[in-house]
Design brief:
Layout (H helix, E strand, L loop, with lengths): L1 E4 L5 E4 L13 H13 L19 E3 L6 H10 L14 E9 L3 E6 L6 E5 L17 E10 L2 E5 L9 H10 L2 E10 L2 E6 L2 E6 L18 E10 L2 E5 L1 H16 L7 E10 L2 E5 L4 E5 L20 E10 L8 H4 L2 E5 L7 H8 L5 E10 L2 E7 L2 E6 L20 E10 L4 E7 L1 H5 L8 H6 L14 E10 L2 E6 L2 E6 L11 H4 L5 E9 L5 E4 H19 L13 H9 L1
Length: about 575
């Protein structure tokens, strides 16, 4: 008895030709008795008969009759025969191994489908440069797009010719990508052609970041994911595909990221505050201050979107999903582009020395002083006390951004990369070195004593610096303050611009100073303060008459005498 396994997967049992059936239940004793009887009774030698040997093919296997057909059926299922075969469905995502490459087609052995075979066009296995990226033995994932006389046809993305409403519905259910060409820009999105079908992709789903100029995609073939199929309306999303790819790529990229490491990336966005760089599924940002050693007006002056850059990782901060600060909920990677550039300060140390006099441009003003550019990328600081001979409240009272001034280098600190400056006049800058005032002498004896710090009750004289409907700003030695409209001595509703003029000299009394240093002034208050000063001065000139040493009387008496 043999078991025949057909190539189709069916199973048969048959007796071998020339064999006599035997009793599988015969005992060993019966067999021995028959052998002894045969030996006692001589018999003529039998005529030899040709016996057909059992085929050596694995399709024929000898089995004992005691093995049931159920056992053979179970063994066949485990061996991957017909009982385990399951057909694939249209639109289903399948996996398989390439076992043969043809001229235009690759043949794939599918997993878990009864050892079914399928085909996929070679063009789908090539990259953008036309190079075949898959070979025999490689595994791939694809979707079933056709089942017919040609067999099972696979595709990694639903392409032109395969598109239909039924296929798009299957693509939506299975998540299979679809290939389409962007035709035009409509309100809120773009129109996409998928074969003869028309679909819509919202602007927000066109890319991971918001696309300011969607018309740049017109005429391009892109891959999308179907998110909605209703009646004849098909809605697509490219963003979901890009996000999936980014997540897979980010996992591998993060393994190679570390603080201090130099990596390559592509500029993915340019903003006023910095530049976003795609490092391979992971995004980092270059602050404006880390773009270049030279002053940058706008990041677009240094890089453009799509540029390849080489950057250094300065900081890596993990996201805190539970944080109340939205900025901390996402992962943050800070990058530097200028770290790969030559530091201009090192070169400046060879050219600049303490005592040098040169011109520079005021590039930034701060309450404590003005920054002056001496070389591209090299700034020095003029402290507020060294900006003017008079006391000023803010550097803008002496200089303005963009102004070119003469400065003298007072100190160079190479460790902290700081240069201390002092503003000088053009006349001093042109003097020969021997005529310059010695540094020690200038420090020992200032050119002019600083104005004393003002206090409440002082009467100051200054010039009108600015006029506003609510009052007059007065600049005076030692500070700057506001004379409210109610303290100008004018009638209510008076136009300050008609009553006062810029540069007009006024006398006012300090009536209030808040903790922030803001000063309130009063013109009538200055008049009253002067009157009190005159009375006190007259009072000091009066001496008691006679031995009784009479007093001066009351303050009202004195005022009455002055009135006479």
């Amino acid at each position: 008895m043999v078991v025949v396994k057909r190539a189709s997967g069916s199973i048969e049992t048959r007796a071998l030709e020339g064999d006599k059936p035997t009793d599988a239940t015969a005992t060993a004793e019966q067999t021995g008795a028959e052998a002894q009887a045969s030996a006692a009774t001589p018999t003529p030698a039998p005529t030899p008969r040709p016996v057909t040997p059992a085929p050596s093919s694995p399709l024929y296997e000898e089995v004992q009759e005691s093995e049931s057909f159920a056992d053979m059926f179970e063994a066949q299922v485990k061996d991957g025969g017909a009982p385990g075969r399951r057909g694939v469905r249209l639109g289903e995502k399948v996996s398989g191994t390439i076992f043969q490459l043809g001229a235009d087609t690759a043949f794939v052995s599918l997993d878990g489908s009864g050892k079914s075979e399928a085909m996929i066009e070679l063009r789908e296995l090539k990259d953008d440069e036309g190079i075949l990226r898959f070979g025999v033995g490689d595994r791939l994932d694809a979707h079933v797009v056709e089942m017919g006389a040609r067999g099972i046809l696979l595709s990694r993305a639903l392409a032109k010719g395969n598109a239909s409403m039924a296929m798009l519905a299957e693509a939506r259910a299975s998540g299979m990508p679809v290939e389409g060409m962007v035709l035009s820009v409509n309100k809120g999105g773009v129109e996409v052609a998928i074969g003869d079908m028309r679909a819509f992709c919202p602007i927000s789903q066109l890319d991971i970041r918001f696309v300011e100029k969607p018309d740049q995609f017109i005429g391009e073939k892109l891959q999308f994911r179907v998110t909605e199929v209703r009646d004849r309306n098909v809605v697509l999303s490219r963003r979901s595909l890009l996000e999936d790819e980014q997540r897979k790529l980010a996992t591998e990229t993060r393994k190679n990221l570390a603080v201090g490491k130099t990596v390559k990336g592509k500029v993915s966005g340019v903003r006023d505050f910095g530049v976003f760089v795609d490092l391979g599924g992971v995004e980092g940002m270059i602050p404006v201050s880390e773009l270049s050693y030279t002053r940058v007006g706008h990041p677009s002056e240094v890089v453009k979107q799509g540029d390849d850059v080489e950057v250094e990782i300065l900081r890596m901060e993990e996201g805190q999903p539970n944080s109340s600060d939205k900025a901390k909920q996402k992962e943050r990677i800070t990058l530097s582009l200028r770290s790969s550039q030559e530091d201009p300060f090192k070169k400046a140390l060879e050219e600049l020395h303490e005592g040098d006099r040169l011109q520079g441009k005021v590039v930034r003003l701060q309450p404590f002083g003005a920054f002056v550019e001496l070389r591209p990328g090299v700034d020095g600081l003029v402290h507020i006390s060294a900006l003017s001979d008079r006391r000023i409240a803010h550097p803008r009272d002496a200089v303005k951004e963009g102004e070119v001034i003469w400065v003298s280098i007072e100190k160079i600190d190479p460790n902290d990369k700081r240069i201390g400056l002092r503003r000088i006049s053009e006349e001093e800058a042109q003097r020969p070195p021997e005529e310059r005032p010695a540094k020690a002498a200038s420090e020992a004896k200032p050119a002019q004593a600083a104005a004393p710090r003002p206090k409440v009750g002082d009467v100051v004289v200054g010039k009108v610096d600015r006029l506003e409907p609510y009052g007059v700003f007065l600049a005076f030695p030692g500070g700057k303050g506001l004379i409210p409209a109610s303290e100008t001595g004018t009638d209510r509703g008076t136009d300050m611009r008609k009553h006062f003029s810029i540069g007009q000299e006024l006398k006012a009394a300090i009536i209030d100073m808040d903790p922030a240093g803001k000063i309130r002034l009063s013109i009538p208050g200055a008049i009253r303060a002067e009157e009190r000063a005159e009375v006190e001065a007259w009072q000091k000139t009066q001496k008691p008459v006679g031995s009784g040493k009479k007093g001066f009387g009351t303050f009202a008496d004195l005022l009455s005498k002055l009135g006479k």
